Amino acid sequence: MRYQISGKQIDIGEALQTHVKTELGEAVQKYAERPTDANVIFSKSGHEFVCETTVHLSTGLTASAKAHATDIYGSFDSCAAKMEKQLRRYKRRLKDHHRERAQPVELFGASSYILASESDSDAQEPETLQPMIIAEMQTKIATLSVGEAVMQMEISGTPVVVFRKDGQEGVNVVYRRDDGNIGWIDPS
């Protein structure tokens, strides 16, 4: 597994990097058969350290966790425990989907845009109805089953997953509704 361990305006020493690789490696190997890479970012928020971890799995799913603590090792240990709990909770489902899927998840490219919010305009009337684009990035959209998309949304903690349904051309969306249920948009 490839590791990318970095800090936002924090020096990350060799001892912490070794601790992260050892502990995260053990936790992920126990519950995920073939993780591909892990991204761990440390930052400071007030008096607390924040650890954000994202692990990409060979099944195409992405698990992420975030934790706060007063010391940097504690923030990582708490984050690793959350990651382990997520993967343990979905181990059976991950293995079932892995057996069904003989090939890795197919990805296709798409453009992702960040638009200016209305609060940035200082309550003036816009000159046009076209939103102002702040940034443009490339992203990947996975080809998944609906069950895999829901699992991806739950594991990654995101409110929305855009995916291409197996065997179909159009783009589908699963999202967390305000009532706690999950919505699925499947265009005809």
TrEMBL record:
Residues 130-183 form the Sigma 54 modulation/S30EA ribosomal protein C-terminal domain. Pfam families: Ribosom_S30AE_C, Ribosomal_S30AE. InterPro entries: HPF/YfiA_ribosome-assoc, HPF_long/plastid, RHF-like, RHF/RaiA, Ribosom_S30AE_C, Ribosom_S30AE_C_sf. Keywords: Cytoplasm, Ribonucleoprotein, Ribosomal protein, Translation regulation. It comes from the Bacteria. Interacts with 100S ribosomes. Required for dimerization of active 70S ribosomes into 100S ribosomes in stationary phase; 100S ribosomes are translationally inactive and sometimes present during exponential growth. HAMAP family: HPF. Belongs to the HPF/YfiA ribosome-associated protein family. Long HPF subfamily. This is Ribosome hibernation promoting factor. It comes from Sulfitobacter pontiacus.
